[in-house]
Amino acid sequence: MIAETSRTEIDRIIAAATTAAAQLAVTTPGERARWLDAAADALEKAADELVPLAARETHLPERPRLRSELLRTVFQLRLFGQVLTDGEFLDATIDHADPDWPMGARPDIRRTVVPIGPVLVFTASNFPFALSVAGHDTAAALAAGCPVVVKAHPGHPELSVRTRDILVEALTAAGAPTGTFDLLCGVEAGRTALRHPDIAAASFTGSEAGGRALFDIANARPRPIPFYGELGSVNPVVVTLGAVKARGPELAEGFASSFTLGAGQFCTKPGLLLLPEGHGLDETLCAAVASVPGQAMLNERITDGYRSGREQLREHPAVTVLSEPGPADDPIRPTLLKVRADDFMKSAESLAVECFGPVSLIVEYADEAELRAVLGVLKPGLTATVHAQESESDMVRTLLPALTRLAGRLIWNGWPTGIILSWAQHHGGPYPATTAPVFTSMGTAAIARFLRPVAWQGFPDALLLPPLRETNPWQLSRRINGIRVTPADG
Amino acid sequence: MIAETSRTEIDRIIAAATTAAAQLAVTTPGERARWLDAAADALEKAADELVPLAARETHLPERPRLRSELLRTVFQLRLFGQVLTDGEFLDATIDHADPDWPMGARPDIRRTVVPIGPVLVFTASNFPFALSVAGHDTAAALAAGCPVVVKAHPGHPELSVRTRDILVEALTAAGAPTGTFDLLCGVEAGRTALRHPDIAAASFTGSEAGGRALFDIANARPRPIPFYGELGSVNPVVVTLGAVKARGPELAEGFASSFTLGAGQFCTKPGLLLLPEGHGLDETLCAAVASVPGQAMLNERITDGYRSGREQLREHPAVTVLSEPGPADDPIRPTLLKVRADDFMKSAESLAVECFGPVSLIVEYADEAELRAVLGVLKPGLTATVHAQESESDMVRTLLPALTRLAGRLIWNGWPTGIILSWAQHHGGPYPATTAPVFTSMGTAAIARFLRPVAWQGFPDALLLPPLRETNPWQLSRRINGIRVTPADG
């Protein structure tokens, strides 16, 4: 057990971050890219120490899971280095003075973004590397030029402290100022830090209840700050009759793999499978689920929460059990339930809910109209998936508006688990998927959460930030007088 | 007096907006540009009816003020039409499938934005056209493809209803679906609408107290929504010794014009003028202020609020009066106060505050160190201005970090009042300037507040939205595999 960070220590950490914020604001993206690369190198080098520590604290398997998660974490840090090198995140926009601007004479106005200030990151339990101390939010905020204070997750405290030490050492050696990165521990410490006047933004990945409580604190501050919470999702998967006919058994296998991956401890776990009545896949599904080995969950609190959520679904009078573990429920083996669509819709409040762990609910729909009605009762989430044949495109097209309303990412003939980070990736959605539906919490666009625009009006070129200077010293793609100009053009 | 909109009527209006939202989501940007142009044309045509109505309700002068404000409003609608035609707001981003992506095989992922849904707009009293019923937020939200429900400002109720009728007629004639735009009246009606589950985002321009109350309602909803509030600002203006020496009298004139413009009823009114001790401009300032004619304020509530705020500043023991109206204080004539920097800093809580109306406070600083200290006690706002000579650039450069922390727009040798709308414009800042510092509330980038990203993974081309199709039918500038590709490139 790691001790709760004291009030004095919290103040010291945030004061150091505040001092660092001023220094970071005048660094170049190139410098920060080198820091991120240095952090990535250091983590990679420490794999043989960190991975066994993570395995011990989280019960996640070393191979392939934790080894590949560490690689993903390293990749994320380097990907944000690429964002920095690219420079388009700076959103450099220049309007030259124009005496004939239709609204009236226009002065020279130039806009780019600056770091928002010290960021408080609440880490997740289920990705002890990729969404934790050196995880995605840390990478995005550091890339933006914001010092980061991480609130460690109690599910992997030793790993958190060790990762912090490695990161601080690597960043310092690479030239980052003192205070650029630090860690605090304890629920109360996290809340205290969130109320600190010098924290400028916060991010969170976790449960709806936990995230909402922090969101409320952030908004109740005398000076509210942006709070970027990713709170969870049910992730419905729609399967059409055509898809069942063409590749039913393959879909059953794919589904069983997806909802049990990582013992179902993913925010993108498919929690609902919408199958047409008469699909005839019960046996295949049961066999697929039965072949999934048991797996210990992250910790006791999560295991207990899972068991009670699963019981709530299982004991609903309209729900039948397709496959479940025997009385020896340790390690946890998956559970598959089913319900008719009309019953599901009557009880959507209690059945269309996220249950963190290896359980999923099959909803059998009679026809397209009923399928549409089911989609109509769901709350928004992170993903929505459709398995269909291309010959059914016309029908799928009519479903897309409902699916788009429901999710930040739509998947065609794939599975929602496994988020590949890239330029186009989006991981978000309307509440309760996230508290900030206009942003993504993963992928390169996630840097925008930690930047705020500033415009300079009528300034001499020498006093402008480099992205806005007439000579374009960083060779950025910029919008000039309303037209996109890439350096090759000019 | 216009009656408070009833609960039944609110429900009807929002139900119609919700139905319209689905229809708007499948319109093209080009269609919406035509709607905005039609709205602009209709307002322009109705100028001779609307301007006198506005003058009667707001006491603002018809010429040049209200005539030019109506032109600005028309310009805003057309400017968002240009944003739609340009299409870069769609942020079209394509990552092709890549088996060799370093994190692991990458599926095809494509991202663009979709309208967030029905938007509730709380209008401002001080710009009865440009920030009201057909104002900037309405233009931005309609451009984004969101139906708009406006909460009318009680300061100009008849104008609000008449503008609503003109807008509804023009939009309908241009082909916009029923429910695309409507109006409701009354404080309680506004709060009820803000709590309605089908409202997806809200925007506000007004006082800190009023904006905060609505921000709190938006966040306390079972499903919180983005709330974009612009709450006000003190707008400090720094004048260097060099500027005083080179053009003191001209600065005094410019300052007097700026803080008294529109009877000081601008969110960008310079509320503080930081002058070096020994500036010798007292007489010039007094003369400039004395020559400003009296002007009726918007309404009695605002006049009363102004008088009490002015008294609070004026009666502070460290404050001296440079110029003030005589006992006959109707119409309102400007007041100019001054204070020494050290006294100001001791009472920043009560002196560094926005007072909506034609009053400003001169703060006399002894030297650069004291100037820096004054900037250190200010709260963030919308703008910060510096008047200096280019020969003082080195000194100004050292002030820029503090000024950037304080504001969303920095102005060099100009005045903060008069916001020109353009691509680079930014009107925002950390709280209390706005509740959403990552966004602008004016300028073309303001459309981003009403759009949310969605990613499509592995979809057949025919099921993708046009911005994401391989053939680029709309000829957009897009980011493809991390590289910006403009249509001219191929």
State the main characteristics.
homodimer; 490 residues; alpha/beta; 2 domains; 7-stranded mixed sheet; 5-stranded mixed sheet; 17 strands
Description:
- Chain A is α/β, with parallel strands linked by helices.
- The first copy, chain A, has two domains: 7-231 and 434-452, Aldehyde Dehydrogenase, Chain A, domain 1, CATH 3.40.605.10; 236-412, 3-Layer(aba) Sandwich (Aldehyde Dehydrogenase, Chain A, domain 2), CATH 3.40.309.
- Chain A contains 15 helices and 17 strands.
- A seven-stranded mixed beta sheet of chain A has the order 10-11-12-9-8-13-14, sandwiched between helices. A five-stranded mixed beta sheet of chain A has the order 15-2-1-16-17, with no helix packed on it.
- In chain A, helix 15 links the parallel strand 13 and strand 14.
- The radius of gyration of chain A is 24 Å and the shape is globular.
- The N and C termini of chain A lie far apart (59 Å).
- The mean pLDDT of chain A is 97.
- The interface between A and B is large, with 91 and 91 residues.
- Strand 15 (451-457) of chain A pairs parallel with strand 14 of chain B.
